[in-house]
Amino acid sequence: MAGRYFDEWMVGDRIAHDIRRTVTETDNLLFTTLSHNPQPLHLDAEYAAGTEFGRIVVNGTFTFALTVGLSVGDTTLGTLVANLGYDKVTMPKPVFIGDTLRVETEVMELRRSNSRPDAGIVTFRHVTLNQRDEIVCQCLRTAMLKGKPS
């Protein structure tokens, strides 16, 4: 399903996105090194083994990016003008290599754009869950979407 236009959303709309993703060691390693994050909890198995987690914890900014990415196909693909911001990003549980993540989205707010009469602003609440149905990431994403063509 392609993304929806602003006019096609209603507050309270919910989507359980079909795409799931199992996080790999390569995902974590590449993302962490590409973003120049030297945190040994994400890169050093010996170090991580000595922490309360007992193993490598997946980089939280990867989890956040995946949260948004898994939602795009059903929300803003082809209809996005711009993402305007992200708020209230929380990560209540860690993600580990081998966890399979899925995302659910709810529309929290809608408003017409003051600067663009052919667009509107949607605030999505994204919630990412692992295979144990534990919330591992949640956030609000505010996006400007095109209005439905006439």
UniProtKB/TrEMBL annotation:
Superkingdom of source: Bacteria
Domain MaoC-like: 12-114
CDD domains in the record: FkbR2
Cross-referenced Gene3D superfamilies: Hotdog Thioesterase
InterPro entries tied to this protein: HotDog_dom_sf (IPR029069), MaoC-like_dom (IPR002539), MCH/BMMD (IPR052342)
Name of the featured protein: Acyl dehydratase
UniProt organism field: Rhizobium lentis
Taxonomic classification: Bacteria, Pseudomonadati, Pseudomonadota, Alphaproteobacteria, Hyphomicrobiales
